[in-house]
Write a structure and sequence with these properties.
Layout (H helix, E strand, L loop, with lengths): L7 H5 L22 E3 L5 E5 L2 H4 L7 H7 L20 H10 L4 E5 L2 H4 L3 H5 L5 H16 L3 E5 L28 H16 L5 E6 L1 H11 L10 H25 L12 E13 L5 H24 L29 E12 L12 E3 L19 H10 L6 E5 L10 H17 L4 E7 L18 E3 L6 E3 L3 H10 L1 E3 H6 L14
Parallel strand pairs: 2-3, 2-10, 3-4, 4-5, 5-6, 6-7, 7-9, 9-10
Antiparallel strand pairs: 1-13, 7-8, 11-12
Helix pairs in contact: 8-10, 9-10, 12-13, 13-14
The structure holds beta-D-glucopyranose (BGC).
Beta-D-glucopyranose (BGC) binds next to loops.
């Protein structure tokens, strides 16, 4: 979801730079293992998000955005989507028949509380509540563990103001009442569903969210290059997350799965690797380290350590900074890791963002690596790198998203083997990972890019909604069943092929 720079090739004329392969083992560590294993307790699943798979999620900022013609392809989640609320049994069958044991999905705040009056009077929409009640009952009956996200990019439309026309008005997280309202939403959801949910994500991907909405302009409200506004929202989300964490723990006291924890609460952090565009250029090296800090560490430092770096400069010496802030520290029971790909950073070339002082390249990188239909590098080693780095927080981790746009389903099998090998290897090095959720269970509405990218393990019939398992899923199931990945399997897997089509980044 990081789409903020012009194409690398167009900016630098297709210069091909050698990007050092990040060996996750590091110096002095044992060579890559020939086999990695996963414990029998490991959670294996897939992810979705409400707005991307449901129809008629029509009381959100995103539904206003779509209705105002902001999706270049003209696609709408209400037409031709997987319609998850009418296909619970199909999706649960997709999970169970392929050996998966867990499902990450979002509960849509704007569906449960379509109006401010309904929210203020704690009078939810009966159909909205019934839908999620039913899904959770069916998941429990099928022995599938739910991992529930409470804000996956959408906000109720009653927290926005005439999007997209009033782009400069305070929207969503910027409104003074949102912090209290979100906390109340967390309390309400955890009270209602805590008996069947133990795993919670408060907010999905704070950084990509603000990049889309306030820097790149492809998400509501559609502001462009407003980095200071974006940063202010990320700061609000860090504090909102901490309050939601407390609210969920206060309300969800029922241990649904008997593991001794009533609630595991975190964010889903989008972690990436960052490399200098030109490794021989000292300013690029410095800029890559700075963006890595802001993107991968700033938020987690705040909610895990309570360390508040207000200027995002890597120091804690200014007046508004804090170490161990009691209102923030310890607000993660695990770290949710969404990992997709690598990023190149330049200090001088291309669209240098204000405040960040760097140009960010995430598609069509001149690295020689295989690409997805989105032009993203397939870079499995990066998963090991981000896990090694995030392990320093001393918390268990869950891969809450990892996947690729692959309309031909030609590369997903090898992608799964290579990423799960890196994951298993990271665990062998001591990184405490409890589960893996592939993005996505089923093809879906990919935000600004509509239906072009196909991220699903399953496709669906646009008329009947019937799910069809893609060929690559056999690989996922065999890994789940054997609990291991071997280098021999990777060697035997079909080589990556270039994408047959490209979904233009919007
Ligand atoms: C988001 C998903 C999205 C996926 C693929 C993640 O950043 O959480 O909603 O579909 O990336 O772009």
């Amino acid at each position: 979801m990081l789409r903020i720079a012009p194409r690398a090739g167009s900016v630098l004329g297709g210069v091909v730079l050698a990007v050092a392969c990040h060996s996750s083992g590091g110096g002095g560590t044992p060579p890559p293992p020939s086999q990695v294993s996963f414990p029998s307790t490991f959670l294996w699943g897939a992810s979705t998000a409400g707005f991307q798979v449901e129809k008629d999620d029509s009381n959100t900022d995103w539904s206003e955005w779509v209705a105002s013609g902001k999706i270049p392809s003209g696609d709408s989640p209400d037409v031709g989507g997987p319609d998850a609320l009418d296909h619970f049994d199909d999706d649960i069958a997709a999970l169970t028949t392929t050996g998966q044991t867990a499902y990450r999905f979002s509960i849509e705040w704007g569906r449960v509380f379509p109006t401010q009056a309904a929210f203020a009077s704690a009078t939810p929409d009966p159909q909205g509540v019934a839908a999620y009640d039913t899904l959770l009952q069916k998941l429990t009956a099928a022995h599938i563990k739910p991992l529930v996200t409470l804000a996956h990019f959408t906000m109720p439309s009653w927290l926005s103001d005439g999007i997209p026309a009033n782009v400069s008005q305070p929207q969503g997280w910027e409104r003074p009442e949102t912090m209290d309202d979100f906390t109340q939403w967390c309390t309400w959801a955890a009270t209602r569903w805590g008996a069947s949910v133990d795993w919670w994500v408060t907010i999905n991907e704070p950084l990509p969210y603000v990049l889309g909405g306030f820097v790149q302009g492809s998400f509501p409200p559609g502001d462009v290059l407003n980095v200071s506004r974006a940063i202010a929202i990320v700061k609000t989300q860090a504090r909102a997350h901490a309050r939601c964490f407390d609210a969920i723990h206060a309300a969800d006291t029922i241990d649904a799965d008997g593991d001794g924890h009533a609630a595991w609460v975190s964010v889903a952090a989008h972690l990436r690797t960052f490399h200098p565009y030109d490794p021989t250029e000292p300013d690029d090296v410095t800029a890559a380290a700075r963006v890595d800090y802001i993107w991968n560490q700033w938020f987690l430092n705040a909610i895990v350590k309570g360390n508040w770096d207000d200027a995002l400069d890597g120091s804690y010496t200014e007046a508004n900074d804090a170490l161990g802030d009691p209102t923030l520290v310890g607000r993660a029971d695990y770290i949710g890791v969404n990992y997709y790909s690598d990023t190149l950073i330049s200090a001088h070339h291309g669209l240098v963002l204000p405040i960040i002082n760097a140009a960010v390249y995430e598609a069509d990188l001149p690295t020689g690596r295989p690409k997805t239909d989105f032009g993203w590098d397939i870079y499995p080693e990066g998963l090991g790198t981000v896990l090694d780095e995030a392990a320093s927080y001393g918390l268990p981790m869950i891969i809450t998203e990892n996947g690729l746009a692959d309309v031909a389903d030609a590369n997903r099998s090898r992608f799964l083997l290579e990423h799960l090998y890196q994951l298993g290897w990271a665990m062998q090095r001591g990184d405490p990972v409890l589960g893996y959720f592939h993005w996505a269970l089923v093809d879906n509405f990919e935000w600004a890019n509509g239906y072009c990218p196909h991220f699903g393990l399953f496709s669906y019939d646009k008329t009947t909604g019937a799910r069809s398992q893609k060929g690559s899923v056999a690989t996922y199931t065999s890994i789940i069943q054997s609990g291991q990945v071997t280098t021999a399997q990777i060697d035997a897997a079909p080589a990556y092929v270039p994408p047959p089509m490209e979904c233009t980044l919007n």
